[in-house]
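Researcher: Here's my situation. A collaborator sent me these components and asked whether they could plausibly form a single complex. I don't have experimental data yet, so a predicted model of the whole assembly would be a useful starting point for our discussion.
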Amino acid sequence: MILLDSVWYRYPSGTVALQNVNLVINRGEIVALMGENGAGKTTLLKHLNGLFKPTSGRVEVDGVDTRTTTVASLSRKVGLVFQNPDNMFFCTTVFEEVSYALMQFGFSREEAEERAEEVLKTFDLLQYRNSSPFTLSGGEKKRLAISIVVAWMPSYIAIDEPTTGLDGWGKRRLIDLLLNLRDSERGIVLSSHDVEFVSEVATRVVLLLRGKVIADGPAVDILTDPRLLEEASLLTPQIPTLIQELKRKGLGDLNHKCLKLDEAVRCLSEIFSKTGSHFRGEGG
Amino acid sequence: MNMTIEIEDLSFRYAGSGRWALRNISLKIGEGEFAVFAGATGCGKSTLFKCLIGLIPQMYHGEYSGRVIVRGLDPSTTPISKMAQKVGMVFQNPDNQLFALTVENDVAFALENIGLERAEIERRVSKAFRIMGIEDLRHRSPFELSGGQKQRVAIASILALEPEILILDEPTSSLDGATAKKLLEELAEIRRKENITVLISEHRLDLVVREATRLIVMESGQIIADDEPREVLRQLLEDDYYMIELPKISRLAWALGLSGRRSIPLTKEEFIANLWGIGS
């Protein structure tokens, strides 16, 4: 697990970016860090692989204090994907980009190439294997950045704003990929303000406001709490907003903790089948 | 309706690319419309926008055919500086647009460049600040602002040019939900008040589509749907189209069979109205 214990972080300019953050991230979880621009999400992610060390407090990755080891050795365990994928690329082809990283982590050339091939296939990028990473579209670059990290199989993957620049198709694919990674017992932390995406994928949500954790709990609890979300400058996702409105209008025994689209479909169809083909509320 | 933009059979291929970025696009957009462009990344939205202000083919070279008329001008031959007085374009990343030491200088820069009088510059700058609600940022450095503030400054600097057409390429992609929603509401308000034509590309359809008069969907350089937004949503849902993210409320209504002959709901209010309408 990754443990953040009373973590404070102050930038050299004096700005306090994190204030007394306490957090535990386990394998098999998909934790979404959410909050407005400047809330401290990226700063927090950079602590997970030791890129930033806390000004006070401590961060431990599987029991190892990040101050006692190197970013390189921590990165083997915690893969960090930056918001702007251009910052990660420097090779001449997509294929080299993935295999180079693997060889840096000590994989033999043969194994690196085998894995690169496999991961590019999973992320639907194999057709670009000989292209320059810089010729890819925004969504493809994002997928490549994630695939580079996934290739070396870190225990934890931290992704800064995974959906920026992704279209509907890209998001659906990403949701499937993240769920698969979780099933293979990876711990995933992502920062996002895309509430609709987070609704479909996160098991847990941590709300940040000006460097402080203001809420930490199951996604289904946090994302159905309009008051908390408003405090963090986030919109309530569409499904819980609708469900609350339906409840207010008198649609009985509706589980207002419904978050995902397929849950809402299931739950509303059940109600319709019980109440007959149509619902009669106050205006019916 | 007076046509502000007329595109006839436009195709474009970037120099060195084997793929046509735009293929036989024909499109007319009327004065005062709020047209939303949607489509998977790489579908050609940004390329099309660049054609409307003349960046294509004047700055980006390639194979260009067809005819584009914007406010009576042909952007392929009209100087871009002249096009820019009719068409204001806001890019996805505001950092590419901001450069001055203060927000005020950033907004005034283009106005000085086109040789306006001091008093006129002051009038326009003040108006743009008021519309975007950023009077308090006037003397700040653009680089110490938050993402949402920067995007507002970038839009203000374009509004100050008093364009007849405002084009925004994914203006909310880096903004949090509350800021994105506010920005889109402001744009709708500006459009109504100033009667300018707005063209916007946006992934978050749930936030933008309720203000839209048109929804235009592109794929691989072609327009595959173009109509009133609810009608387009119906077509996309019927086809189980997954390349763009459709509003969840619309998808839920469709999955529950709540849309029937009625229009596809975009908001919770419309959803509830449809719900009560069943069987009646």
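Model: Some features of this prediction you could bring to your collaborator: The interface with chain A takes residues 39-42, 146-148, 173-179, 181, 203, 206, 242-249, 251-252, 255-256, 268, 271-272, 275-276, 278-280 of chain B (CB under 8 Å). The beta strands of chain B are 3-14, 22-30, 34-39, 62-70, 87-90, 165-169, 197-201, 214-219, 222-227.
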